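Suppose you are handed a protein chain with no further information: no name, no annotation, nothing but its sequence. What can you learn? This example shows the usual starting point.
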Amino acid sequence: MGNRNYRLYFIDAIRAWAILMMLQGHFIDGLLDDVFRNDNNLIYSIWKYFRGITAPVFFTVSGFIFTYLLIKVPLKGFENPRIKKGLKRGIELLIIGYLLRINFLGLLKAELYSSFYLVDVLHCIGLSIIIIIGIYLLVQNGKKYLFPLLLLTITGLLFIFEPHYKEWNFEGLPVGLANYFTKENGSVFTIIPWLGYTTFGAFLSVLFTRFKTHKFLYEYAILLCLITGITLIFLSSDFFLILNDISGRTLFKAIASNNYLIIRLGDVFIVFALFMVFRKALNNVTFLKIGQSTLSIYVIHFIILYGSFTGLGLYRFFNHELNPIFTILGAIVFMITCSFLALQYEKNKLKIKSSISLLIRFALSYLARVYIIAFKYVRVNLLKFSQLFKFLKS
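A reasonable first move is to predict its three-dimensional structure. Written in structure tokens, the prediction is:
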């Protein structure tokens, strides 16, 4: 295979790793007994730290892949077919995010439970894609550096001012909208600050595209990622404390005291560096297909673990009840099961979609017939009732 095809292998490999880490992370976090959640335990603390890397990596890679495909097309503005596809994809992710939180039992009672309005990964990634498209269209006629500069600026503003806006009160907004900005109602992720990782991934994809023909692209990229990652992880907090001493602005001290966003960005750089180092060894077809099937895996894992639609998931029956042995073994089985089902779905996607479409058409046709019969029945009985009423009145 040519070098050009190789260059995105490491991105798909990162996505595969991230989705697998998400599967085991959600399983263990949801089912492990609280007795064994001890931060003083070395194994648990290491697992907990690496679990925290998953979401930043996933958001960054999502922004990277979408923007890479977007700017790869030479056409600008709405002539770029990726605009339409991106908008469709963003809206699709938002819809799927809400559908996964629907409970049929609630619908039977004509009620949407409060969990339906909670915001999760799919909502944030879908909205982030739409925002990146908006930024792209905004600067399409400007200088080439405006797009990456604006992406980087958004990331910086979201990360630096997080201590301020996390204190904002969004009570004036409808709950469904407020959940995109605050975790007070139970949202797992919010568009701020997580949009920052997506825009940063988009920024990296621009750099990658600009220098993709460079002879020593990976050598320089690996070195820069390692240096930047180590600097952000180990020195960024001290840097903000120095800025606090110099400027007297309490904002910098607040950042240093809870510097998780920038430290996690450093982790993202390290992950990118490692996967670029081993990129030629990560071209296993099955592994790469897992990286290309993340949406299917996410949907399947949500149904099995959290019981989408029915409420009958593993979380309901084993919530914080398993010991470490059963939790670890279960997590392995869970990863394999979700990946296998997702790959089978992707393999037979056209047949499955055709069958679902046929089933929906049949159901609609049946409901239409039932409606016609019911309408006729009601009309006949109303006519009889009207005649009876006239007779009694006379």
